[in-house]
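note to self: dont lose this again. the chain is below, predicted strucutre after it. 304 aa total, dont forget to put it in the shared folder this time
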Amino acid sequence: MKTAKKRMVNLMKLTNRRLTSVALGYFDGVHLGHQAVLKAALNTEYEPAVLTFRGKFKGNLNINNYRFEMIKSLGIDPYQTYTYRLSDIKNLEPEEFVLKTLLGELNAKIVCCGYDFRFGKGGWAGADELTKLCNKFGMETIIVPPVEVDGVPVNSTFIRQLIAEGDIKKANKFLGYEHFYMGYVVGGNKLGRTIGFPTINQEFPLFCVVPRFGVYSSRVSIGVYKDGGFKEEQVYDGITNIGVKPTAGSHNNVTIETHIVGYDGDLYDELVKVSLVDFIRPERKFDSFEELKKQIDEDLKWLK
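---
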């Protein structure tokens, strides 16, 4: 009886707060399926909010900062994006998660998630259990069905597989945008300029899915992250090598090296966005830099 009375008192305290429509998910990459869940939360009479998670997951489609930026670009206030440590959430019983987190902390009136969302201790609860529990505590649910591209459901696992295989063109269709890497330009060995193809070098981001080593046609955006948002100032075509640059001397660190077509300037320490458009060829070691130069000439034909 005490527990029920205490719960009722806590519920009454929520009545003076703004009701929210909460989108649930990790939203790795904010692909087309994720966008459908986020838009469901936006298209209600209540204030849209996001409950997402953070942790050192391997194979992310993008790093947290840009994931949050993409959520913001859809129209959700960053102050309404609530990020929980997975360790704080994963051991909660399903009812505790719904009552304590969704209702108690986020004041949810509507809860939106994908058809395959899992939650609760051991991850045993799904969309059906969420609907039952939300109904029990006076909340509605919107369960978003699969979003399909060419008859295939969009999900992060499949997109990771496509990227790892180098099928970037197909991955981009499932993402709904060109898969990109954002990073500061760092110093390189400056060999590119000696053969007439100067390049910029970027370190590959930790915990992100590693694409098939090779050369990609790309789009390069310079001056893209200022004043807390994406602001593309200049966009160029590019040729990007992702791998370990065996011709220049093998090493274990994965790097992103890009020749920017038509650009002449110093970008050291600048933040640059490199979007992959299509896979051209696997990475390989050349017997000479002259042979490499001829191959780059061939690679550039993909941009025409």
